[in-house]
Write a structure and sequence with these properties.
alpha/beta; globular; about 30% helix; Maf protein
Length: about 200
């Protein structure tokens, strides 16, 4: 039978969980072997780059970088899936907080108002890249300084875009969601499944 698995260009445990949820078999292609090594993709927003263009560019570049790794390692040819998620507030991209103070600042800016969550998905086979961008809206209730402090102290905001995890303790902050819950987690499953089918991956 033909190989129907893919390469996943992500270390995210949430993306692994979501792919397993829809029955996709995958092998991880890590884009950085260790933190001391330089990143394979520059995730710094460019001057004048909109949030929508930013997530799309980063997802495409992650997929391309992973394809390069598979070729260098002479791995079997399979589709490569990559994704990028950004939280956007007032057209500003809120990435992963570098420290506790940054996480507190992000959560203060999100409290009591809506924000956008953008996730771009890229699937590539050879030199052909297909992409989708999923947009969702999330509303946070008002948060006290003490609530934010306790949440940041829990460690959950670490390595999370916008300094929160929708599937974690931050669920208690959210009053409303419009769009894709899985997209907010980091991988919109409807769009992902559509892309994978277009590349010959048969889902259960």
């Amino acid at each position: 039978m033909p190989d129907k698995s893919i390469y996943l260009a992500s270390r995210s445990p949430r993306r692994r969980e979501l792919l397993r949820q829809i029955g996709v078999s995958f092998e991880i292609i890590p884009l950085r072997e260790a933190p001391r090594y330089p990143a394979d993709v520059d995730e710094t927003p460019r001057a004048g780059e909109t949030p929508d263009a930013y997530v799309l560019r980063v997802a495409r570049e992650k997929a391309q970088a992973a394809v390069g790794i598979t070729r260098v390692r002479r791995l079997a040819s399979r589709p490569v899936l990559a994704a990028d998620t950004s939280v956007v507030c007032d057209d500003a991209i809120l990435g992963k907080p570098a420290h506790a103070a940054a996480a507190i600042h992000m959560l203060e800016s999100l409290a009591g108002r809506p924000h956008r969550v953008l996730t771009a998905v890229a699937v590539t086979a050879g030199d052909v890249i297909d992409t989708r961008v999923c947009e969702s809206q999330v509303w946070f209730r008002a948060l006290s300084a003490e609530e934010i402090r306790r949440y940041v102290a829990s460690g959950e905001p670490t390595d999370k875009a916008g300094a929160y995890a929708v599937q974690g303790r931050a669920a208690a902050f959210i009053t409303r969601i419009e769009g894709s819950y899985s997209g907010i987690m980091g991988l919109p499953l409807a769009e992902t499944a559509d892309l994978l089918r277009s590349h010959g991956i048969v889902l259960p």
